[in-house]
Design goal:
Metallo-beta-lactamase, Chain A; alpha+beta
């Protein structure tokens, strides 16, 4: 596969939401600018009501490396408006709508905690409690480690650094 190099590059760039027919099936393609990355794509199949969310949903914790947290929160709100039955995250097990609602609440509470004066450990503990069974038992230590890092380096970093992924057109 690696030897195929350039033949594996995308032949069409997705830069806006659209409806596309692929292999005789119609899909809804969503595009979120500067939320988790510079451009996140999700795919919804109305026939099966399966939503492939990509890195807009990640477990055992949100991955904030290149994220703009406020835009990510808004992107999750838009995903909630999709009439899906099953959501396939970029990292983690597929989830039903109720589990996604749990993820959104945990995400919102994590951002709110990190923006406040609570101790970092309280924010991490809050995520662990709020996300609950979404986090596989074997991934609890990883989740804690990731959030311990992200709260300091991404969510509570100095404003200029933390806002860098949010700069530019939405």
């Amino acid at each position: 596969m690696i030897d195929a190099g350039p033949a594996l590059f995308p032949d069409e760039r997705i830069t806006a939401a659209a409806t596309r027919t692929i292999g005789g099936r119609t899909f809804r393609i969503g595009y979120e600018s500067r939320s988790v990355t510079a451009g996140d794509v999700w795919l919804f199949d109305p026939a099966t009501r399966v939503l492939a969310a990509g890195d807009l949903v990640t477990l055992p914790a949100p991955l904030f490396d290149t994220a703009c947290a406020p835009r990510w929160r808004a992107a999750l709100d838009r995903l909630a408006d999709v009439d899906f039955r099953v959501l396939v995250p970029g990292h983690g097990a597929p989830m039903r709508r109720e589990a996604f609602a749990t993820y959104r609440r945990a995400f919102d509470r994590l951002l709110d905690c990190a923006a406040g004066a609570q101790a970092k450990a309280d924010c991490v503990d809050g995520w662990m409690l709020d996300a609950g069974t979404l986090i596989p038992a074997g991934d609890a230590a990883l989740a804690r480690s990731l959030l311990d890092y992200y709260i300091d380096t991404k969510l509570r970093a100095d404003t200029a650094k933390a806002d860098a992924p949010c700069v530019g057109p939405a």
